Amino acid sequence: MELRRLVAATAGLTVTVALAACSGGDRPARPAAAPGSAAASTTAAPATPKPGERPDCAQPEVFCVGVVTDVGKVDDKSFNESTWRGVQRAQKELGAHAQYIETTDPKDYAKNIATFADEHYDAVVTVGFALGEATRAAAKQFPDVRMIAVDQFQAPGQEIPNVTALIFPEDQAGYLVGALAAMVSKAGKIGAVLATDAIPPVWRFGEGFRAGVVATNPKAELNIIYHNDVGVDRTFTDPEWGKTTAHSMIDKGVDVIFGGGGKTGNGALLGAAEKDVPAIGVDTDQYFTVPEARKVLLSSAMKRLDDGVFDLLKASKDGSIKSGNVLGKAGYAPFHDMEAKVAPDVKAKMDALAKSLEDGTVKTGVAPVKPNP
Amino acid sequence: MERRRLLFIAAIISVLVGVAAFVGSARVPPLQIIASMLSTTLAVATPLTLGALCGVWCERAGVVNIGIEGTMLTSAFFGWTAATALATFTAAPAGLCLLGGVGAAVVSAMLVGLLLSVLAVTFRVDQIIAGVVVDLFAVGVTGFLNRQMMFEHGGLFGGVAPQSAGVMPHVRIPLLADLPVVGPIFDQQPIAFAGLLLVALTHFVLFFTRFGLRVRAAGEHPRAAATVGIDVRAVRHRSVLIGSAIAGLGGAYFTLESVPSFEPLMTNGRGFIALAAMIFGNWTPLGALGAALLFGSAQALQINLQFFREAIPESLSFLQQSSIVGLLPYVLTMVVLTGVVGRTTAPAADGNPDDGRG
Amino acid sequence: MTALLRPLLVPVLAVFTALVVGAGVIAAAGASPWDAYTGLFQGAFGSARALSETAVWATPYIFAGLAVSLAFHAGLFNIGAEGQIAVGALTAALFGYGLPRWFGSDLPALVHLPMTLLAGVMGGGLWGALPGWLKARTGAHEVINTIMLNYIAINMVSFLLNGALKDPEPGNVIARTPLIAASAELPTLLERYRVHWGFVLALVLAAGVAFLLRRTTLGFELRAVGSNPDAAAAGGIPVVRTTVIAMALSGGLAGLAGAVEVTALNHRHELGFSAGYGFDAIAVALLGRTHPVGVVLSGLLLGAMRNGATRMQFLTQIPVDVISVIQALILLFVAADVIVRKLYRLRTPGERVALTRGWGA
Predict the structure, then answer these.
(1) What is the distance in angstroms between the Cα of B28 and the nearest Cα belonging to chain A?
(2) Same domain, A354 and A253
(3) Of B91, B121, B278, C54, whose CB neighbour count within 10 A is largest?
(4) Quick check: is A9 in a domain?
């Protein structure tokens, strides 16, 4: 008896699903959204129509850009947000039509990219190392769509015609601020609080920093602490841990703090600010993203994600874009409020070092990816 | 019994601090390491203590609360938003903005507590499910609202990173704060001090006042309590609200005392560690404090082991992996629950919706 | 017929009410609820690929929802599905890439795949059996122990993925296992779509759980222990054994959810996957009223919502967190069915069953 009911119910379910499949997308959605239902009374104002309905991206003159974030949000104050800012600039200056999809689960990478490709978007920006495989697979599936792969190093000889990887010499930026830290530190004790070495750009920042410190002051004590004990989705979002760790270092005599990796790194900067210890940020000029740490912020190891993304979109629009790896700009941020506290010879050395790194006379010696033990 | 447990906790903390001092002794004077361990431990323990106190209040009255995580996350968000809004839109001094933020955190936590107690006490919904509802709600609502506040046009802060009100200043108790080693205990921020005070206060109220007696009666024997004229429901509502208000302070710690920013999911499971601390502490305020300190010192040790990694022999290098030392609170809690180190006893009617009204 | 439909009434009304409130939230966010829900619907059911993806999303929900439900029937609250999924995924991945290496030769899929799935079941099952045993032996409450085991699982998996089990391929920096062998891959049902045999397996197991609970001695014992352990003990039912078995089965189902994700979709285990399936599974179980058929339906619904969220965001650019809010609302209305009953003036049923007992008892 019970079993028969079960079978009946399962059959009913199958029919329902099948019906839904046949009905297609033009069918009205759920009853809950029906006008005149209770929804109408709870919704205060009628929703404003989106500025500019979705254009037809299949038209050659319409330039459509889609962004697929990593598991994370476009307002993460980190790489997703910087990318989105570059895309927004393309919206303004190139008249591009831009939209984003935020990934909630890695198994959706492919689906989210395909959502844009199916609608004939001209370029899809995929953000983060983790999307590497999905981006390459999608590029083969949709050869007409330009994939802009942020932080996804393409191995030599394995380039795909419609994939342009935007990568950054994070090691150089790290090297620069590492040298700065070594020159500024009086005690010769330097600490780095970083999110996780499982993400290549973070690892390169950290190793570049190490190389810069060692090259400048071989006797300096350098400590790098990663927040590896939580998942990749959480390691960037734990400012409290960053601050606690920075404090623990400062307690033991460290007098320059390098904080990197989303909000976790920001926590380290804030911790340094609380104890009045010079701090160095990462990714963008953090003078503007962590205003509370301004008074101690020496500089930031920067990668210009927004500029890089914008430049590639521009090149994509006018057809001059190249495939394979494109190197974005990296460097160190101005001293701002600390300007007066940095000795002139330190500034001169930093200038010289930046030039030497750019023309290749100084090398960081950091591999593009972390070697395995 | 109680003393034995506190001694046990103190012994483990001493061992953890001792390990750190020993490992780092080649590079940093041991006393300096001990002071550093102490200060990290206190910082980490603050939200755990407050969360665990919330658990003590609720469960002593017979209401299981696994929504502590959600309560703290919600109050962290509203506390930060209120303080930042005050700083952005009014000319109020930073201290006032922060106080406003703490107020908002506590009120929002009490609203969350109200949701829990209406579900669990009034509607007699399964209490654990009610707690899960609270946790899921907190994640969704804070994530959504944070986005609405911060991002794009039309948000409260118009899409730019707002200038926050900063964090609570340190309060130094003169003379005592200058003591060697134990100095950090007397140089903390207000919520950390409040946590210690609330432990004492909770202990006093629960065990030495009429109200406390009623709370415990509601948690141990609701039917008997009802027959002597105690309104069990009212007592439970009140206890949940008091506890949630304390958890609200715990939430405020994250965004108003530790760092001046909110991040989705930023409580990162500490509400559940707080729950473990309450159980570890055998449903008593002093025990909860001890357990929170124990868990705090485990994290402090992990940071120190990474700092002194060169002093750790190759064969033990896995110890500096944060994922291994990070296991300590959870494993210890399970061990304690098995009764190996003294039996834990929950209030007899904890989780029992019976309120003597039939 | 009405007897068949009546248990659906409250869940359906709960979903409806949650969607109505959700529409208010969407409107408050400045988007059109109509567009949002149209997008949600299209994204979930609008095309063959959408249907396939909905099934893909629903699969772990059904497994984990069955896991939580099964424990409920034995009076146990398994909050540990999250950890059991992680352990199941890890052990499945380990057997998926490791077995051929240990044997020194390729294995036929007919042997390798079942062993891999079974490894996931065993991993999750052991992870579930431990709190069951602790509960039965020492009285330690399974809720707190499964929460603790969630965190222990996450830390342990992270430790292993960063160390012993890390993919040694040159250039890999991600904490993940190597790819599993092709012989351990769970095939897709249809060409060009991702929907896989795991979905069928989930449906079969739903029927299996229904059969177990209603038609077998073990099922009877589980339910007896669940409704009154003292009476069950007095009636000669071995409570300790039954409790352990219930949690082991529950953990095994959750572990299978992880194993299927590994063998059918990701083909390896990677840190960070399965964010929140464990908690969502509680919602699935409750929405499905812990009945296997209900779990299948509610797993499909929640899977559809998660899947459709992509298109919803594509059309309206509202944050996907809306889905979490709606999901929490659904759970709220299902858990507190009093609200729904008052709202729609339904009769209250005579008896109310407490699902779990507090840890004081």
Answers:
(1) 7
(2) yes
(3) B278
(4) no
